[in-house]
Amino acid sequence: MNRPTATTNNSQHNVCTYAQQSTFKIMLLGDSGVGKTCLLVRFKDDTFLSGSFIATVGIDFRNKTIVINNKQVKLQIYDTAGQERFRSVAHSYYRDANALLLLYDVSSIISFNHVRDWLGEIKEFAQSDVIIMLIANKVDKTNERVVTREMGEKLAKEYDVPYVETSAKTGLNVEFCFKAVSQALLEQTAATTSYGQSASKTLNSLVQLNNRTSKHSVCCLYS
Ligand SMILES: Nc1nc2c(ncn2[C@@H]2O[C@H](COP(=O)(O)OP(=O)(O)O)[C@@H](O)[C@H]2O)c(=O)[nH]1
Ligand SMILES: [Mg+2]
């Protein structure tokens, strides 16, 4: 299978000794304006960029290293370069992704309606065992919300992908998304026999648990 394997590195830890370091490529997809850049900045720097659209020049990425189950995981998180304005992100962009976070904005029915188009593209061009998460962002905008949780969950069920509600503004579930995906990817790497299956199972159960325990509060699974 032409999949980028997680790399290991045992030599560069001065403070803690970890058995191995895995590197995963996570990509953010979805219409322009849904909050992809803000989600990335919230996760990377724990801040919120408000105001007009934040320009993204070129395909941009950020690295962040996190620790899951005593393992170091290096995430390379790719943000789109504004190409998504035309809803045609280069297929090479996500062909070698390990995970795709597909966002829509709960205050924009158009961005929600386009999720089907995005999923169609993903099914056609991404790797068959890519981990996908559907993210309903901007849930802090309660008064302007037009896409309900039920609508999001129904669509996610139809496509068999986990559904998580986030707010890059308040930070709700932002860390959870990246950590849950990383945990699933780690299991995917470990599960050589049932490659792919155990990862989506892991992700689904993490998401279900999180949705049950923190419907309206900041995720506590990883804190
Ligand atoms: N209220 C609210 N606004 C957000 C949220 N995420 C992003 N925004 C705003 O939505 C606009 C577009 O965000 P941006 O990250 O540039 O979207 P992108 O085009 O998908 O990268 C900006 O004005 C952000 O401040 C959120 O969770 N809540
Ligand atoms: Mg952007």
Automatic annotation (TrEMBL):
PROSITE patterns with a match to the protein in the record: RAB, RAS, RHO
Spans traversing the lipid bilayer: none
One MF term in the entry's GO annotations: GTPase activity
Pfam families: Ras
Taxonomic superkingdom: Eukaryota
Keywords: GTP-binding, Lipoprotein, Nucleotide-binding
InterPro entries: P-loop_NTPase, Rab, Small_GTP-bd, Small_GTPase
Gene3D superfamilies xrefs: P-loop containing nucleotide triphosphate hydrolases
NCBIfam families assigned to the protein according to its UniProt record, in alphabetical order: small_GTP
Identification of the protein by name: Uncharacterized protein
Organism: Rotaria sordida
Lineage, uppermost ranks: Eukaryota, Metazoa, Spiralia, Gnathifera, Rotifera
